[in-house]
Amino acid sequence: MANPSPPLSSTLIKIALAAGVVGMGALITWLPSWGAQDKPDGRSIVEVWGWNIAAESLDLLVPEFERENPGIDVRVVRSGANLQSRFLLGMAAGVGAPDVGQMQEREAPKFTPSGRLMDLTDLASAHADDFAEAFWKSCLYEGRVYALPWDMGPCAVFYKRWIFEQYGVDPESIETWDDFIEVGLHIREASNGRTAMMPLALSGLPDFFQILMQQNGGGIFNQEGEIILYSRENVEALELVRKLVDSGITTSLIGPELLASFDGDSVASYPNAVWFMNQIKDNFPPQREGEWGVFRLPAFTPGGLRTSNLGGSVLLIPEQSEVGLEAWRFIEFANATVEGQVTQYRERGLFPAYLPALEHPYFDEPDPFFAGQQVHRLFATDLEHIPPMNRTRDWNEAERMLQQTLSGWLTRRLDNETYLRNLADALSRKINRPIAPATEHTADRS
Questions:
Q1: Are 20 and 77 contained in the same domain?
Q2: What does the longest C-alpha to C-alpha distance in the chain come to?
Q3: Does the model's pTM come out above 0.85?
Q4: Domain CATH for 212
Q5: Whole-angstrom distance, CA of residue 220 vs CA of residue 1
Q6: Does residue 24 contact residue 77 with C-beta atoms inside 8 Å?
Q7: Are 45 and 39 a contacting pair, CB within 8 Å?
Q8: How many Cα atoms sit within 13 Å of 32 on the Cβ side?
Q9: How many domains does the chain have?
Q10: What integer pLDDT is reported at residue 297 of this predicted model?
């Protein structure tokens, strides 16, 4: 097993300093400025940190929450890219963290073992069945609850209706990834090579591999924290990535080129998470609504799971908060009420992690942009069946190694299983975690 971890405060400070937020000399003078605020008229002030649209969505909830909780003032602070590092510094110093913090679902396991977060078990356990297992487990450490799922990123395929109609393609005919490739080959040939089926740049390989990995029941760590990188499920996911690229139906687009491709015929479809919908709508002529559609993520095999996840966030409370119970009441309102979750999705596009919210009539409303299709209901289908991934405190290091090596795997045409075996060995040495017994791996399965 892994060696004992260094003291938490030392570990957190090193992470934050490595992120380049501040130098050690500035740390002492910076942290005190984050001190607790006064409570005017006996009211409790709950400070919430979030970023961009996520912070805006929480801010939308404040008036109604304060009306229902007249003794609590909620102040949402929209922070920038350094939010996570500032959060780490505040926890390490024991002062300066907010009362409620936003973290990406994949980042949460870095914080949950810290001992610096409020234990929410007694408060949150009643909601255990209200969230998909894949998300609930990311909020646990040794059976205790330290965060609450907020939003998620279920996946499907956005497609251009005019291209599919031009080449006689029925999206309902695409059930598996093999079907997807077959349609892509048809469109490429019929368009004389002008139209690719999907974008897949080298920089996008890690996220796409993780979509397929989770869809196929793979992962990086098992429930015991052992490394399972070269499991059968992961090898199959990697084989599919190779098959898609080798088929010639993908194209490498990123940044402005990707956004520009929305209004044209260079790409026919975009497998991605629900939040990608806003990028399409924001970068496509509004007067042409109705020209897009969505179909479910292709399965690995007929009858298989047709969804996965990419992205999502949690809310958590630092132990140092002096208003922890009041902070919990706001988190519960935002994350574990139908009203709070539906408002955030309808107004800012944060897809609910709270399963009861998916029964709201809003999810059956037609979307004019997608020609009246019930896209919200499509994305809400089978979420409880998404396999959980054990995101240990070492998840970020494993993800970083994937990001550094996947492009080399593709361009150098490395053997799929050999690549994953070598990566597992390198990760094991790096984080001092064991590789799972051979019976869990491809080479030893019949």
A1: yes
A2: 72
A3: yes
A4: 3.40.190.10
A5: 16
A6: no
A7: yes
A8: 3
A9: 2
A10: 98
